[in-house]
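Re: that chain you flagged

S.,

Sorry for the slow reply, it's been a week of failed gels. I finally had a moment to sit down with the sequence you sent. For the record, here it is as I used it:
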Amino acid sequence: MNDERDSVESLRGTAFPDSILGYQYTISDGLAGMQVEDIYQDRRGLLWIATADGGVSRFDGTHFETFGLADGLPHSTVMAIAEDTDGRLWFGTLGGGLVAFDERGIQVYTTEHGLPSNEIVGLQPQADGSMRVLTSAGFGRFVEGRCVESTTAIAGQPIGRVYDMTTDSVGTTWLATKERGVISLDGRHLDFGDESGAFLWAWKFAQDASDHLWIALRNRGRSVIGRYDPLHQQCDLIAVGAGLGGAQTMRYKVRHVRVDSKGWLWVAGPWHVSVYDGQDWHSFYKHVEGIDPGNTRLTYEDCEGNIWVGLWDQGLVFCDLFSHQLYTEADGLPDRRIRCLEEDSAGRLWIGTRGGLACLEDDRIRSMKMGYEVWALEVDCQGTLWFGNTEGKVFRGATAPEAIAVAAEDNYEDIMGLCQDQTGRLWVGTHQGTLGWIEADRFTALEERLPHRLETLMQDSEGILWVGGYGEISALYYKDKNRLRAFDLTELDVVPYVNALCEHEGTLWVGTTTGLFAVDLHSKQVRQFTMDQGELTSNNIRSLAVDQQGQLWIGTRGVGVIRYDGETFYSIQLGPLLQENMVEAILCDRRGRLWFGTPAGLFRYRPRRTRPGIVIRQVVGGRLLEAPQSVSCPEDAPEIVIHFQGIRFGFGRTQQMHYSHRLVGHNLAAEWSEFTLDNKVSYRDLPVGEYRFEVRTQDQADLVSEVAHLEVRVVPAAKSARSQSLEHKGQTAVQAVPGQSPTITRLLLQVEPVARTNMTVLLLGETGTGKNLIARGIHALSLRRAHAFIPLNCGALPTELIESELFGHERGAFTGAVARRAGYIEQAQGGTLFLDEIGDLALETQQVLLHVLDEGYLRRIGSNKSTKVDIRIIAATNRDLKKEVEEGRFRADLFYRLNASTVVVPPLRDRREDIPVLVEHFVRQYAQELKQPVPSLGDGVIDHLQTHSWPGNVRELESMIQQAVTLCREQVIEVADVLLAAENEGAAGALVPPASAPPVEQKIEAQDEKEQIIAALETTKGRIYGEYGAAQLLGMNPERLRSRMRAHGLQRPKKAS
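Prediction finished late last night. Pasting the C-alpha cells below so you have them in one place:
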C-alpha cells in the first residue's frame, strides 16, 4: 500500500467560497432530536432528518413535523432513511427493526420477517424495487414485506455490523464494516490496516468521476481517508488536509465521506468538516459565519445545492454556499458596516465602509484604512473615483487621493451624496444641508441651504438633479437653473424622509420611510406601494437599483431585499440576523451580479436556477387529513379547505412564495388563479362528483414549480347503519340514543333543539346513567357532526397530567415529554369535546380551561405560540357543582360558563322500559368488537334484568352485558350468565333534584366481589387498564380495582414466559 499525497485531478472544479452563510436548527425550532444520524430529501423536495434521540423530522423550509414513538415508531433511535421506487419512505431503527412509512401509516418489520437483526444502520434502495438492509449482523434484501435474502457471514466468519455497501467500476461489491474493515463479498480485504495489522473500522464509501473509491476510516492517530483504484487494485491512505493541497494535517476521526455534484470531496468527523475543491483543502467551519464546529456525523447536498450538516448533540446546520456570499473583515474589508457601493470602468467594485475604503477585484478585497468613514462614492465619466468622508472633504483618486474641502476645518460636514452631471460638474451634498459642486478643484455652494439634512443625490436621463432630504416636509427637491425647488405633488407632501432615488424609463422611484413611490416624470402621476396595501414587507426603504432585466431591487431596513418585476413584489431575506437584512446600498455590476451592502458585510447574491417544490400539506373536509394524495368528502361538509406549501430552503424563502391554483372537473372553469401569497384555498357547496385540484408556486427568482395535484371526490352524505335503521322506523335522528321510555323521550325532545346550536351543555345525573351516550347524540345532531367527538374522563387522569392531556405539550416541556403532542382540545378542532366528571378538575386547570373557552385560543405547555381553537364543550358530572362552588372547589365563573344549557339524565331505575333496547344495543356492540356472531337472549333474561334496581345505572348494565357476551356459550346469553350483584334495595329511590345527586356506590358482598374480580381478570388475561381491561369490564375505576384486589389478596396472573 502506498501512502500517496498527490493531487486528485478528478476533483478539480469551482473555487470554494470564502464566506458561507449558515443557520443552526435545534429542538427549539421543532427538530425531533439533537443527535442527527441521517439526512434525505424525498422526490417531492421535503427534507427528512433521522435522529438518535427523538425519531424522525420532516422539513419543508418552514415547518418541522416530528414522527416518534407516539406515532408508531418502534424505537426513537433512527439511523437511516431511504425512499423506494413507489415513493414510500423507509426508516432503519437501532433496535426496533425496519419501518415503512406513507400516508396510510407505519408498518414495522423485524427479525420475525427474516431480517438479520433489528439493529438497522443503513438502507439502500435497489433498481429492482427491493431494499438492501444493513444491520449489526450482516445485510439482507427486503421485498414485499419479507427479507428474502440474508447474509451474515463471509468466508465462514461473521460479518458483524455493516455500515455501507457499494459496487466499484469493475463489478466488485465492497462492505464497510466495524469488525472486518473493508471486505468484498468473495472474502477479499482492502489493506487499510494500522501498524498492528488490525483492520480499520470503515464507515462510508464515495465514488468519484475517475472511479476511485474513497473510504471513511476510523484511525487512532491522524485523520486519513482510504482511496482505492479498482482498475489497478491499488490502496492509498490520504492524510486529510495534507498532500492533496498542502494544508496542515488534521488529527480527527473521519466519520463520513462524500463526493458532491461539483466533484468536491467532503470529509467529516468529530469537530471538523474538510473539503477538497480540486485545488486545496478547506476547513469548512472556518468559512461559515456564526456556526461553531460540532461533532459532525455527515454532510448532505440537496437538489438546490445547499449543504446540510448533521451534528451529534447539536442538531442540524443549513449552509447556502453560492446564492448568498458574505464578505467581512476576515475577507479584507476595513469594516463590515457598508455605506455605499460603486463600480468603475475596469469592473472593480469600490466599497465605502465606516472604517475606510475597499476595492474588490478578481474576487479579492484590497483595503484602504483611512481613519475615517466613507459615506459617498462616484465614478466620473473619465473613470476617476471620487469619495467623501465624515470630515467635510471629498477625495479624488484611490491610489494617491487628493482632498478638496467642502466645509471649513472647524465645521465638519458629513458628505452624503456625490453625483456628476452632464456638464462634468461633481455635485456634493452633506448631511448638514449644504449642496454645491466641485469644478476646477474648487467647491462652490448654492446660496440657499436645505432646511434639513441631505440624504441622497441622483441625476435623471433628462439631466435633472434630484435631491432627497431628511427630517422635514417636503423632502424631495430638484434643481432648476441653479435653484432648488421642492417637488410639489400632493402624494409626497406628507413624506419627511427620502432615503433613496432611482430613475428607469421615465419613472422616478423614491424610497422613503413611509413606503415606495413611483413618479411618472411626464404625466406627474404618482403610485404608492406600502405594507398596508399588502405589497411591501417593509415601508422603510434604504436603497434602490435597477438590474439588466429592468427589475427594481429595493433595500429595506430589517427585512432584506425586495425585487419588483413590474407586477409582483418578491421579498428575499439575506440571512437570519437583523443586521444582515438592513440593506444600505445596492449595485448591479456589468456582469449582472447583484451586490448588497449591509451592517453585517457585503453580500453577493446569485438567484437560484432550480425550480422550487410544492406539497399539499393538509386538507380539511369532514375530517382532517395530513399530506393526502386523494380525499373523499361528504357533500354536507361545511367547506373543503386545502393547505399547500412551497419548498425552498433558505432564510425566509418560503414566506414570500406565491401560489396559483385551480379546480378541474364537474363543469368548473379550469383556469389558473393569479399568483398570490395565500397558501390555502376553500371551496363550499361542491356538488357530488370527482375533481382534480392543482397548485403551483413561484419563488423570488420567478421560477415556477411543477404542479402538485390532489384527487377530490365529493360523495353523498354518509349515514350510519343505526341512523338508517331508525329512519326506516320513522324515528328522529336523536333517537340514536337507545331508549323507548317516556322519560328518555322527553329528554331527547329537550336535547334536539339545543344540539343544533353551539351552546355549551352541562349533563347532570348519577354515576353511570349514560351521559356519554347523550353527549354523542348531541354531537350527532349538531352541525359539527362531520368533525371529531373527543371524550375525556377528567377523573381518570392524575392531576399532574390533566393539563398536558387537555392542552398538549411541546417536546421537552417537562420530564417525559419526549415528543410534541396535541391535547384533547386540539384533537377536537371543529368538533365536540366531552369532559366527563368535570367536577374533578383542579382549580388551576379550571382557570386555563375558562380562558380557552372565553378567548378561543390555547397554548401548549412549553410553547410561546397561541393556537386558535373552534370546539363545542359538553360537560358532565355527578357532583353538586353549586355546592362545590360554595366550598371553593369549583370556579363560579366556569360553572356559569358551562351551565348555558342543563340536561338532567334520569337513572336507569326510572326508565326500566329502556332496558330491552339498551341490552340489544350493548350485545350487538360487544359482539362486533369481539368479532363474533351476535348472541341471542335466553328466556327470562330481560325480566331478570328489569327486577334489578341498577344502582350503577347504564354503566353497570353495559359492563354486565359485556361480561355476558364474553362468557356465554353456544351464542345464547342465559340468566346464569348475568351476574347481578347483591344490593341494598333501600338505596333505590326517586331522582334527587338537579345538580345535587351524590354518587351512588355499588355495594357488593365481599365473596361475590372477589369472585367477579377473579372472573374479570381471567377473561382479560390479567389486563386491568384500557378499553378491554378488567376495570372497564367491572365498571370500576382502575385504581379502585387495584385497591379491592389488595383487600382480597389478589394478584394479576403472570404472563406466560
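What I noticed first: Residues 1-13, 243-250, 719-735, 982-1005 have pLDDT under 50 and may be disordered.

Talk soon,
D.
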